[in-house]
């Protein structure tokens, strides 16, 4: 395995291309995403990582919707409809922006939390587990040389969007993971000091 700041692009498929700590220390969100999207093998590796999310009670309180190709246009129309229903006076420029949002990457993964009744696992823990699954997807994307960013915007909280996308009454959108090849604009790592966030408790 290679140690370094970027995955070895010469390797392909779902082979691990960064060592684990480099990946955890260096992953950044990448908004500038271009074609091609992930291969089927890369997608499989993303979802295998998602299923390793910590999960109290083994409830598997998540599922994932892949939105690629023309489905992105369809989702854009839904974003537009929801935007219009929430704000009937919205200017056309805003509605167009809504419609184009899913076109910002070749592939989107909608992360859905599936809330279940459980005496020991409250909804908050299930939501955290879905968030961990989302983060595992981001990490697996970065490890494979892809770029990815988690976006929610105003749309995720809108029950109207969830209904239109076929979510059940116990399900909510946790976010859309935009995934693709890295474009030319890669953001720098923003350095943070662990000492600003960590202290001993006694
Ligand atoms: C739950 C959640 C929702 C987010 N929603 C958005 C969003 O709608 N738009 C956006 O630009 N960034 C959003 N972000 C932030 C980006 O995903 C990303 O974390 C941020 O740009 C910082 O980049 P970094 O991950 O490289 O530190 C969201 C992050 C989280 C955890």
Automatic annotation (TrEMBL):
Its cofactor is FMN. Keywords: Flavoprotein, FMN, NAD, NADP, Oxidoreductase. Belongs to the nitroreductase family. It is an enzyme of class 1 (oxidoreductase). It comes from Balneatrix alpica. The keyword Glycoprotein does not apply. This is Putative NAD(P)H nitroreductase. The keyword Oxidoreductase applies. Its EC number is 1.-.-.-. Gene3D superfamilies: NADH Oxidase. Residues 35-180 form the Nitroreductase domain. The lineage of its organism: Bacteria, Pseudomonadati, Pseudomonadota, Gammaproteobacteria, Oceanospirillales. InterPro entries: NAD(P)H_nitroreductase, Nitroreductase, Nitroreductase-like, YdjA-like.
């Amino acid at each position: 395995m290679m140690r370094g700041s970027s995955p070895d692009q010469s390797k392909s498929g779902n082979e691990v291309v960064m060592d684990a700590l480099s990946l955890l220390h260096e992953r950044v969100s990448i908004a500038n995403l271009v074609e091609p999207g992930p291969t089927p093998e890369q997608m499989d590796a993303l979802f295998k990582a998602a299923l390793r999310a910590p999960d109290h009670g083994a409830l598997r309180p998540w599922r994932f919707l892949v939105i690629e190709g023309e489905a992105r246009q369809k989702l854009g129309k839904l974003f537009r409809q929801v935007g219009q229903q929430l704000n009937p006076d919205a200017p056309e420029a805003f509605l167009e922006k809504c419609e184009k949002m899913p076109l910002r990457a070749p592939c989107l993964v909608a992360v859905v939390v599936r809330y279940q009744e459980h005496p020991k696992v409250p909804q908050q823990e299930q939501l955290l587990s879905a968030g961990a699954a989302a983060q595992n997807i981001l990490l697996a994307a970065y490890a494979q040389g892809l770029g990815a960013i988690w976006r929610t915007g105003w749309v995720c909280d809108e029950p109207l969007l969830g209904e239109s996308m076929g979510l059940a009454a116990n399900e909510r959108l946790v976010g859309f993971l935009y995934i693709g090849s890295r474009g030319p604009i890669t953001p720098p790592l923003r350095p943070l000091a662990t000492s600003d966030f960590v202290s001993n408790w006694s």
